[in-house]
# Entry
Amino acid sequence: MTKKHIHSHGRDKIIWALDPNQDPQLAKNLVAEMKLWAHKLNCDIQPVTVTDSPSFPMEKVSLYLNKLQVRQLLPTHLIIEKLSSARAMASALARYAEREKAQFIFVNTHAKKSWIPFQMGGFAESLITTSRVPILIMNTHTRPSLKLSSVLFPTDFQQDSKRALLHLEPILRKFDAHVILYNLVERQNIYPPDVQYSWSNASRSFTIASQSVEKTRQKKAKEWIHHLEDQNVKCSSVIKPQKRNLSSSILDIAKKNHVGLIAMSSTSGPLAQALLGSVARDVLLQAKCPVLVYYRPKKRAGVKQPSFQVSQTKGKEGFNYAQ
# Structure
C-alpha cells in the first residue's frame, strides 16, 4: 500500500492499471491525465497491479509511486492471477473494475506503429477487448489534455455507439466540452448491370447513392445533436465522403480540431487477440491525444433512453468503426 492515501466516502473510482516494471517516465503523462479526470469528475484513483506471483513484493509498487511523486491515492490493490497469460490477467482486472463499479480504467500501451495485425498485443489490447468498464488508453507519444475542451466521437449511429454516447454525456458536461460527431460516408460499390452500362452512368449512380447516404446521416446527426443540446452538451457534426481510410480520417479530424480526447465505441467478434478492429487499433497507436474506448457499453441504469431513433440494422446506413 502507499504511505499516503485518501479515504473514499462513496465517491466514484478510477482504476489505474499500474505496471511497476514500466519506466516511471513513461507513466507521467498518464498520471497527469488521471489527475485531471479525478479532479473534474470528483473521483478517487486506485492503483491496481495484476501479477501471477503470490509472493509479489508490494514495496516495489511503493517505490514506483515515490519515483512518480504521486500522492492522494487509494490503497494499491493487488490481484494475483494464477494464469500468466495477458488475457487472463486483463480479464481479472476487468472483473475487479466492474465489481468495484469503477468509472474508468486508465492504461498505457507501449506498442509501436506497425502494419502487423496483432501490433498492440499483450495486456492493453486484451483489457480493451474484455472490459465492460470504459478504457482510457495513452500510447508512447500521447500528450495529456490540459482542459479537454473538445471531444471527437466517431460514430456509426448504431446502438452500441448510442450507448457509448450516453456514458460520455456526464463527462462532457463536467468538462464543459464540445463534442464533434464524426461520420465517414464510405465509398459506394456500384456494379454495372451489363457491359453496355457506361462509366458515366455508373459515376452518376455512385454520386446519387453517396448523396442519399450522406443526407440520411445528416438527418441522424441532427437528431443526436438535438438530444445532446437538450442535455446541455455543446455539439456539432462532421459528415464527410470517404477520401482516405477511416483511421487516417479520424486522426486528421482530431488534429485539425485540436481535440483533447477521441471517444470510440468498439464492437467485435469472439476471437481473443483479433477482437479489436483495425480502425480502433490504428487510432489507439497513432493518436496524439488520449483515446477512450467503450467495449460493448452497458445501458445506464436508471437513465431513460433518448427519444431519437437509431437504426439497428448494421451494414446499411451505419459503418462499424471498430472493424
